[in-house]
Design brief:
Layout: E1 7-13, H1 14-24, H2 33-40, E2 44-52, H3 58-66, E3 70-73, H4 83-99, E4 105-109, H5 116-124, E5 128-133, E6 148-151, E7 171-174, E8 177-180, H6 186-229, H7 234-244, H8 258-267, E9 272-278, E10 281-285, H9 293-309, H10 319-326, H11 340-349, E11 353-358, E12 363-368
Parallel strand pairs: 1-2, 1-4, 2-3, 4-5, 5-6
Antiparallel strand pairs: 7-8, 9-10, 11-12
Helix pairs in contact: 9-10
């Protein structure tokens, strides 16, 4: 079976990208190559256009010409700024959308929220839209409007500037001993050292939090797909994740490919993989019982039993807070459940607790079994 490749039209708001890279990426020069390579993985780029007043970007023209980008010159009249280039770019995109119906994907390279209506219109006309922008200069309105959004500095081949290290407390030697910078005490020096240790540990904690976030997102999304369609393929899961968050990328979590991320999640017992209909597109499912589920159900049963022993009615509202006091990391969403009620019903199905509606309390009451 032949898979028809995507045919892509690329539009660059060059001033937005070049100035964004210079101002937000530590003076970096914008390079088109990482965008070209990222799009080559997604389909065949048949239209490449960049819009700017090219008298302001003389050195960049040669680089773009080497990549077969058509340069659309929009000279800036006295007292008039960038709107002319924005309008021309939007008009050209709509014109191509109607004239060339073989185009399946439009790539809009900008961080400007003024292009959000264009993105909405292209999607309404059944075109896939990918956005590309500098993270720090991209409007928060634009990425959610796209089918997929790529942050330029996250693309392979872009050298992001190194973060500036915080200055350590400077010491100076005076007489027999060393002394912290004027005005500070030994206690302050100890605090500074502690802050440095915490700063060194922060990347590791951040990575763990990111993987926790990934686990929660995958479990929730996969549970929803299984309820709706039953059999879920890896490609279906990826599309659903992108619909939820167009900026989603496995590279954000340190994985080179989608398949590598799925294999990692299988090793962590987050998902189970089995052969799918096509090679390289496995069937993905939730394990019959996650590694954290027995512990979570046991915690629920224990808290309910303790409340009953104190002759306190174990109402479902407020019960989640009691579980979190015992185990701060508890989250039913991390286990793939849509809400706490669904988690409690799952516990009832497994014979851990019994759930009963109380008209008097207008809430569910949980009972030990």
């Amino acid at each position: 079976m032949t898979v028809e490749e995507e045919r892509i039209a690329l539009f660059l708001d060059y001033e937005n990208l070049a100035i964004g890279a210079r101002d937000k990426l530590g003076g970096a020069t914008f390079d088109f190559r990482p965008i070209a390579e990222a799009l080559a993985e997604r389909g065949r780029v048949v239209v490449r256009r960049a819009y700017a007043d090219w008298s302001c970007f003389r050195d960049d023209r040669r680089m773009l010409t080497r990549h077969q980008v058509e340069l659309i010159d929009i000279p800036q009249r006295l007292g008039v700024r960038k709107n002319a280039a924005d309008i021309k770019m939007a008009v050209d995109a709509m014109e191509l959308c109607f004239e060339r119906d073989y185009l399946t994907t439009f790539v809009i390279c900008t961080g400007d929220s003024d292009f959000t209506p264009l993105v909405h219109k292209l999607r309404a006309l059944n075109k896939r839209v990918i956005g590309v922008g500098i993270r720090a200069s991209t409007s928060p309105l634009l990425p959610p409007a796209c089918d997929e959004f790529l942050f330029y500095e996250a693309l392979e081949g872009v050298e992001a500037p190194a973060a500036k290290p915080r200055r350590a407390a400077r010491r100076k030697t005076a007489g027999a001993g060393s002394e912290v910078t004027a005005g500070s005490s030994p206690g302050q020096a100890e605090q500074a050292a502690s802050a440095e240790r915490q700063e060194a540990e922060a990347p590791q904690q951040g990575a763990a939090a990111d993987l926790d976030e990934l686990t929660t997102l995958v479990r929730q999304t996969l549970a929803g797909l299984q309820r709706g369609t039953g059999v879920v393929l890896g490609s279906m899961l990826k599309r659903a994740l992108l619909r939820k968050d167009p900026t989603f990328s496995e590279a954000t979590y340190g994985f080179r490919t989608w398949s590598e991320m799925l294999r990692y999640l299988e090793q962590q017992k987050v998902v189970e993989l089995s052969a799918g209909g096509a090679r390289g597109d496995p069937e993905v499912s939730l394990p019959e019982q996650g590694t954290d589920e027995p512990e979570a159900f046991e915690l629920l049963a224990r808290v309910v039993a303790e409340l009953e022993a104190k002759r306190t009615l174990p109402l479902m509202s407020g019960l989640k807070d009691r579980l979190r006091k015992r185990q701060p990391s508890f989250s039913e969403k991390r286990l793939g459940y849509g809400g706490f009620l669904q988690f409690c019903k799952a516990a009832q199905t497994r014979g851990v607790v019994r759930l009963e509606w109380s008209d008097e309390a207008e809430d569910y009451v949980l009972h030990s079994v």
